Amino acid sequence: MFNERMALKIRLDQLADAEVRVMQEFKKEREAIFARLQELDETEENHRPDITAAAADITAAADITAVTTVGAPPKIRRGRRSEGLTELRDITIRILKKQNTPIRGIELQRYVEEQSGKKIANMTTFMNSLERENAHVRKLGRGLYIYEYDL
Predict the structure, then answer these.
(1) Is 62 found in the same domain as 32?
(2) 103 to each of 107, 110, 111, 148, how far by Cα in Å?
(3) Is 78 part of a structural domain of the chain?
(4) pLDDT in tens, 89-134
(5) Which of 82, 149, 140, 144 is nearest to 109 (CA)?
(6) Please, are residues 144 and 102 in contact by the beta-carbon 8 Å criterion?
(7) Do 64 and 100 have their domain in common?
(8) Burial (0-12, 13-18, 19+ Cβ within 10 Å), 78
């Protein structure tokens, strides 16, 4: 049964994912800027020590914030994890491993529900959490999932 509590939990997961993506984008942009600053410093014939020192200070400050935000320990799951959910995930991974080609989410859902006898309420959310947990599971787009052996 889908209620407000479940909807709020799902939204929290979505916000956490979005937060991680935004932090990764900021980190990439910061690294690109620092790389370009370093290139400019190297090509400049008359290095001005005050600019180099300022860039070093900014780099040090960025490293500190990167460690405190992006390098933070992985999020600890709150609450208890359903044994049924673990079983569903194991079955899903087993099916994806057997499949050589991408499989549609609805077909995957049918196979998992047939084998486990349990219902998956929201396949998209289920697969998003499975993708976060298992790096080999990948969504190719528009409901197609595959298990990638080589990462």
Answers:
(1) yes
(2) 7, 11, 11, 13
(3) no
(4) 999 999 999 988 999 999 999 999 999 999 998 999 999 999 999 9
(5) 144
(6) yes
(7) no
(8) exposed
| Total number of domains in the chain | 2
Last residue of a domain, one of 35, 69, 103: 69
Q: Between vectors from CA 12 to CA 89 and to CA 145, what angle results, nearest 5°?
A: 35
**Which residue, among 145, 112, 115, has the nearest Cα to 128 in the 3D structure?**
145
- The boundaries of the domain holding residue 142 are 83-147
pTM attached to this predicted model: 0.47
Q: Could you report the per-residue pLDDT of 36-54, keeping only the tens digit for each?
A: 888 888 887 555 555 556 6
Residues 58 and 88 in one domain: no
Burial class of residue 88 (count of CB atoms within 10 Å of its CB; 0-12, 13-18, 19+): buried
